[in-house]
């Protein structure tokens, strides 16, 4: 299986990264996409990616860190993409949820950085890994205006109508640990109605852990809990979930 979204480069894994990857292997998680989040950590992300053959690299400037991003970071991103050939541009997007990010000026800055990264991705013919909260309509508009090579809408949390617009634009939707919680009824219902061919699995570790490890650090080795939850929701064989979601990830990310 492929964990299509995991921040294995983060400090939270500094002590036991190799052990985590060993346990991933035992659990059938054989490929992990590691998206970068800011220029300050590009070097760390690339270093970790180069250390382990099961990792795939994505490079981008995350909207949560919008206060940190500088115009020259976009040039650095462009150069690093040419140099390291990541499989996608990400994690990029719009986050209009966090109170400290919702000032008009910061929304505007997020929109500018997102748009410029869409253009960079298009120039390099790369798919996208998109983070979005409370701004799906704005995101869909920009994707339609700028164009894209598709990709993944990470931790999708919008409406079924928005989901279908993303699918029409060549995206698949990432589902993670939230699916394992009974209280996530809206999300589980959404996963039920989205065709399996448009779904990929992700942990977003070290954040957003699964119900079985509530309160602990999340880890890519827990991907089978998400696979199991989706199998129950869709009343399908877990092996089919693993096979089809992996094929989907390979198709959209070109791996
Ligand atoms: Zn992330």
What would you note in describing this structure?
Helices cover 44% and strands 15% of the residues. The model has no long low-confidence stretch (mean pLDDT 96). By secondary structure, the protein is α/β, with parallel strands linked by helices. The protein has an eight-stranded parallel β-sheet with strand order 1-2-3-4-5-6-7-8, sandwiched between helices. Helix 8 packs across helix 9 (238-253). The protein has a single domain, classed as Metal-dependent hydrolases (TIM Barrel, Alpha-Beta Barrel). It is built from nine helices and eight strands. It binds zinc ion (ZN). Zinc ion (ZN) is lined by residues 5, 7, 35, 91, 204. Zinc ion (ZN) binds next to loops.
Bound molecules: zinc ion
Please count the helical segments.
9
Structural class: alpha/beta
Question: Can you give the helix content as a percent range?
Answer: 40-55%
User: What's the number of extended β-strand segments?
Assistant: 8
Distance between the termini: 13 Å
Q: In summary, what is this structure?
A:
With 255 residues, the protein is an alpha/beta fold. It has helices at residues 17-26, 42-51, 71-84, 104-123, 136-146, 160-168, 185-193, 223-234, 238-253; strands spanning 2-3, 31-35, 55-59, 88-95, 128-133, 151-154, 171-175, 199-201.
């Amino acid at each position: 299986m492929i964990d299509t979204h995991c921040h294995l480069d983060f400090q939270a894994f500094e002590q036991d990264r190799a052990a985590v990857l060993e346990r991933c292997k035992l659990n059938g998680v054989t490929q992990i996409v590691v998206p970068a989040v800011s220029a300050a950590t590009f070097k760390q992300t690339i270093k970790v990616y180069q250390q382990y053959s099961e990792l795939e690299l994505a490079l981008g400037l995350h909207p949560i860190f919008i206060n940190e991003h500088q115009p020259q970071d976009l040039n650095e991103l462009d150069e690093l993409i040419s140099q390291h050939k990541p499989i996608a541009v990400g994690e990029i997007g719009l986050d209009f949820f966090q109170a400290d990010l919702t000032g008009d000026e910061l929304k505007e800055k997020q929109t500018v950085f997102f748009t410029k990264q869409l253009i960079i991705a298009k120039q390099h013919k790369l798919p996208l890994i998109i983070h979005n909260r409370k701004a799906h309509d704005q995101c869909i508009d920009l994707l339609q205006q700028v164009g894209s090579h598709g990709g993944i809408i990470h931790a999708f949390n919008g409406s079924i109508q928005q989901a279908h617009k993303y699918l029409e634009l060549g995206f698949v939707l990432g589902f993670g640990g939230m699916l394992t919680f009974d209280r996530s009824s809206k999300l589980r219902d959404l996963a039920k109605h989205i065709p399996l061919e448009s779904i990929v699995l992700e942990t977003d570790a070290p954040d957003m852990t699964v119900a079985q490890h509530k309160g602990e650090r999340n880890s890519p080795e827990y991907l089978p809990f998400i696979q199991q939850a989706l199998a129950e929701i869709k009343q399908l064989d877990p092996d089919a979930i693993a096979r089809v979601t992996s094929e989907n990830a390979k198709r959209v990310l070109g791996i």
